[in-house]
Write a structure and sequence with these properties.
By secondary structure, this protein is of the alpha+beta class. The chain has two domains: 4-136, Beta Polymerase, domain 2 (2-Layer Sandwich); 142-229, no CATH class. The protein is built from nine helices and six strands. It has helices at residues 17-23, 30-43, 95-103, 107-115, 125-133, 142-161, 165-186, 197-203, 207-229; strands at 4-7, 12-15, 49-55, 68-74, 88-94, 117-122. It has a six-stranded mixed beta sheet with strand order 1-2-6-3-4-5, sandwiched between helices. Helix 6 packs antiparallel against helix 7 (165-186), helix 7 packs across helix 8 and helix 7 packs antiparallel against helix 9. The longest helix has 23 residues, at 207-229. The termini are far apart.
C-alpha cells in the first residue's frame, strides 16, 4: 500500500501528492487532478471533514473513465469548498446521514463502502465504518433498478423521436446500466463499476444484456472522442 502521512495534531491520514496518482488510476482531466489534490491537502486543516473517498471506474482496473466520483463525509457543519470541475461527481454526506442511509440500503454509499478507496480520513473514520459495514451491506434493490431503467427508457424514446441522438444514446446507456445492476442483484452479485458490468453479466449467464451494454459503451467512447476533436 502507498505510504501514508499521519498528522498527530489532527490524527488524520492523507495520501501524498504522488500517492494520489497511485490510488486514482485515471484522472478524467487535469482540472480533476488539481481540484482533488487541493481538497485532500486542505482537509487536514478542516475539522469538519471526516473522510474523502474516491469510487467508481477511476479507481478500478478498467481502460476508460468519464469522471471521478468522490464522497466527502463531514460533521458539525458542511465544509465550504471550491466548486469542483464538471469531471468530478462530488457528493457530500453528514456523518450521521451516512449511517442512516447505509442502514436503509443506500445504493451509492453501499458501493462506496465496498469498492471505494480512502484519499483522506480523520481518526480512521472511514476505515472504522468499512470494517463495521463491509459484511452487512445490502445488495442494490432490484425493484428500484428496474424502475430507473423504465424511466430512462421512456426518456430515451422521447429524445430519439425528436432527433436528439446523442442525448438519447446516453439515456439508453443509463437504461442498460440499471438493467445490468438489477440482473446482478437478482443473482446475488454486487455490481462493480460500469465498465466491469459486462464481464459480471457474462458470469451470471446474461450474455445478450452484456453485449448490448458493450455496444452502448463503445458508442459512448466514440462520441466522447468525436466531441474532443471538434
Amino acid at each position: 500500500m502507498s505510504q501514508q502521512l499521519t498528522s498527530e495534531r489532527v490524527s488524520s491520514t492523507a495520501f501524498t501528492r504522488g500517492d494520489l496518482s497511485d490510488v486514482v488510476k485515471r484522472w478524467p482531466d487535469e482540472a480533476s487532478r488539481v481540484w482533488t489534490h487541493g481538497a485532500v491537502g486542505g482537509a487536514s486543516d478542516n475539522e469538519a471533514v471526516k473522510a474523502i473517498v474516491a469510487t467508481g471506474s477511476s479507481v478500478r482496473d478498467v481502460e476508460h473513465s468519464d469522471d471521478l466520483d468522490l464522497v466527502l463525509v463531514y460533521g458539525e457543519c458542511r465544509p465550504i469548498l471550491a466548486r469542483p470541475p464538471i469531471s468530478i461527481d462530488l457528493r457530500l454526506y453528514e456523518q450521521d446521514e451516512v449511517l442512516q442511509k447505509l442502514a436503509a440500503g443506500h445504493d451509492y454509499l453501499s458501493w462506496t463502502v465496498r469498492y471505494g478507496v480512502v484519499l483522506f480520513e480523520r481518526r480512521d473514520w472511514w476505515t472504522t465504518l468499512r470494517a463495521d459495514w463491509q459484511d452487512r451491506l445490502s445488495l442494490p434493490s432490484v425493484t428500484d433498478a428496474l424502475k430507473r431503467a423504465q424511466r430512462a427508457e421512456g426518456l430515451y424514446r422521447k429524445l430519439f423521436e425528436i432527433g436528439d441522438a446523442d442525448a438519447a444514446a446516453d439515456l439508453q446507456l443509463s437504461m442498460l446500466t440499471f438493467l445490468s445492476r438489477a440482473a446482478l442483484s437478482k443473482a446475488d452479485v454486487f455490481a462493480k463499476s460500469r465498465p466491469e458490468l459486462p464481464d459480471q453479466l457474462h458470469g451470471i449467464g446474461e450474455r445478450e444484456l452484456a453485449e448490448r451494454l458493450i455496444d452502448a459503451l463503445e458508442r459512448r467512447t466514440e462520441r466522447t472522442t468525436r466531441d474532443s476533436v471538434i
